[in-house]
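Researcher: I'm preparing a figure for a lab meeting and need a structural model of a single chain. I don't have an experimental structure, so a prediction will have to do for now. The sequence is pasted below. Please return the structure as tokens so I can convert it later.
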Amino acid sequence: MHKSRSRVNVSTFGKRALLAASATITPVSYMRIKFFQYNSDASPRLSLGKNIERDLMVNLNCPIRLLMEYVRVKANIPVEIDFDLFDEMGNLKHTFDAPVQKMASKILFPKAIYFIVILPKNEIGIVLKPTILINRGSRLNADYVTRIRRQLQHSGRKTAK
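Model: Understood. Here is the structure written out token by token.
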């Protein structure tokens, strides 16, 4: 009794098909970013329903710079304006300080909620008062801005007093 072994014919499937069949699937992990559209003319505060809070789901399995440029486009933030993300505790993520090809999943956590902060600078590069693109009530907004300013001062960035 001779049992024949079934062999995979490489020419039939091709190398790509074999690699695809043997590769493990990377789980998709998402985070949420809540924000108002950036508007240089007006304050990002809620005024007569013009500003609608948006909720953006973002896949973390990509380079951090690609993710941040996608957020820039979706939030309508011009290229010449610096911005960053912060979490619900007010912790800045310093996403633009990370290497360009570093994976976003190494910096940001899945299933977390992040907010956008605009970091305006004057002519000599000093960060002025940060503007957050979310409205969580005046007390919480002021607390977020204070925490962000404190972190910017400790990180070595020049900030206006």
